[in-house]
Amino acid sequence: MPSNDGMAADCPETQPERGNAILAKADRPAKPVIAYVRVSSKAQGRSGLGVDAQRTALDDFARREKFDIVESFTEVETAKGDTLARRPQLTAALKAAKRIKDDDYGRAPIIVAKLDRLSRDVHFISGLMAERVPFLVAELGTDTDPFLLHIYAAFAEKERRLISERTKAGLREARKRGVVIGGTNARSLKNQAEARERAEELRSVMGKLEGLSHRAAAAALNKRRIKTPLGGKWHSVTVQRVRARLAATAPEAAGKELAARWRVLEGRTAREPKK
Question: I need a labelling partner for 166 at 20 to 30 A (CA). Which of 44, 63, 132, 192 fits?
Fold first, then answer.
């Protein structure tokens, strides 16, 4: 894993230029970027689940930040035991980014919809930072430097463990009360995990539709040609189910406290004067 000294050395080189690029984006031509999309099962890859939502988020981000997506790579991979050897499309994206020089970023940035589309593993994220290719996360914005990406990755890894621990604790307590967990086996647990994963793929899109009713949100998703978890059209009940899954997996007290700390830290970073 790269040392903190290495990360600190990267930041002064990239951040002032990055800030200038953002400030001047209204007056500059669109900058080239590489889009990277990842889904976590072959079924999702075939159905388009998650792929469409990520591409929509990346298109919106590129349009908002005045980027030009010159190449796009889509990976179908489980992300267990992350290595670049298991990510041929990410490896190809890195090579494509290194071929394009940029005055502000050094090389063409790779953009992803959410940080977990790269990985939920802090060690793997650290290894990517050592590739000297900038990564931009649409959900976090263009101001998130490598140091903050490490913090967010650590938080995501911690929250994943908390969710797993809460799920196991809930099952234990239910069994103590005599509740029969019908049909709980390896297959059903796998299906539940995949359902939560599919809902997570849509979290950023659903967040933008938060103020809409289930029916209105379904109409908006169909208009944007984003498929349901089963690859079909949206209806109000489908939106309701996905929203319920997202609410069930949202961070609870411990997670919210950690998230608040990161927001405070990010606010302090944003208030620091640029040198």
Answer: 44
- 40 counts as catalytic: yes
Top-level CATH class of 4-146? Answer: alpha beta
Where do the domains of the chain lie? 4-146, 152-255
Q: DSSP string of 89-141?
A: HHHHHHHHHHHSEETTTEEPPEEESSGGGT-S-HHHHHHHHTTT--EEETTTB
> What interhelical angle do 186-201 and 236-248 show, nearest 10?
100
The answer to whether 14 touches 4, Cβ cutoff 8 Å, is no
Instruction: Retrieve residue 92's tokens.
Output: 């190809």
Residue 7: the pLDDT is 41
Point out the residues of the chain with pLDDT beneath 70: 1-26, 41-49, 78-81, 146-147, 150, 153-164, 178-195, 249-275
Which candidate in 3, 40, 126, 164 is catalytic? 40
As given in the structure block, the two tokens for residue 90 are 């990410």
Q: How far is C-alpha 46 from the chain's CA centre?
A: 20
From the number of C-beta atoms within 10 Å of its C-beta (0-12, 13-18, 19+), residue 173 rates as exposed
For 15-42, write each residue's pLDDT tens digit. Answer: 445 445 444 566 778 899 999 999 876 6
Rounded to whole angstroms, the Cα distance separating 129 from 134 reads 7
Q: For 187-209, what is each residue's pLDDT tens digit?
A: 666 666 666 777 777 887 888 88
Q: Residues 100, 138: contact at Cβ < 8 Å?
A: no
CA distance 141 to 230: 30
